[in-house]
């Protein structure tokens, strides 16, 4: 397990992180908290991670469409699979910006004393906590960079976007923001872990609420 944990991480924190990231009611609560923080959407406590993912997916698609319209870029959805050369310039540039943010986020998580591998929304996706934390900030900080650079029409937008991200990371307090966000996320998780899971059931919800 040592390879999965950052050097200098608290053994107690690491153990609790692993347990929390594999406890269903904690996953649900952290997912609801992330949704509320990111989009201002408050869900009923009976709504679990699948409902969160559905709402999040719809909001993300809307955000991409708005950015594409704002910058005058043709948009046919987010594509990440297939050969790199077959992807559109905007999809390649978004991926480059995301990769840069993921690298900075991993540094923040390790600095905060946690493992990048045990997260909540992306529980079985490699560096799950990296994706969880970065996703809460990427549309605020790096995704607009991708659209702005592709929109200017100059060659090699993905590499210019990487350089733009590096400049952003040097001149702003994003690393500190990511560290704080990691600590807040884990505080939510550990608080939930220390409490008994709710006994509410979806079938007891009012009809209108169970459908949303």
Automatic annotation (TrEMBL):
<keyword id="KW-0051">Antiviral defense</keyword>
<protein>
    <submittedName>
        <fullName>CRISPR-associated endonuclease Cas1</fullName>
    </submittedName>
</protein>
<dbReference type="GO" id="GO:0016787">
    <property type="term" value="F:hydrolase activity"/>
</dbReference>
<keyword id="KW-0479">Metal-binding</keyword>
<keyword id="KW-0540">Nuclease</keyword>
<keyword id="KW-0460">Magnesium</keyword>
<dbReference type="InterPro" id="IPR050646">
    <property type="entry name" value="Cas1"/>
</dbReference>
<dbReference type="GO" id="GO:0046872">
    <property type="term" value="F:metal ion binding"/>
</dbReference>
<dbReference type="Pfam" id="PF01867">
    <property type="entry name" value="Cas_Cas1"/>
</dbReference>
<keyword id="KW-0378">Hydrolase</keyword>
<keyword id="KW-0238">DNA-binding</keyword>
<dbReference type="InterPro" id="IPR042206">
    <property type="entry name" value="CRISPR-assoc_Cas1_C"/>
</dbReference>
<dbReference type="InterPro" id="IPR002729">
    <property type="entry name" value="CRISPR-assoc_Cas1"/>
</dbReference>
<dbReference type="GO" id="GO:0003677">
    <property type="term" value="F:DNA binding"/>
</dbReference>
<dbReference type="GO" id="GO:0043571">
    <property type="term" value="P:maintenance of CRISPR repeat elements"/>
</dbReference>
<dbReference type="GO" id="GO:0004519">
    <property type="term" value="F:endonuclease activity"/>
</dbReference>
<keyword id="KW-0255">Endonuclease</keyword>
<dbReference type="GO" id="GO:0051607">
    <property type="term" value="P:defense response to virus"/>
</dbReference>
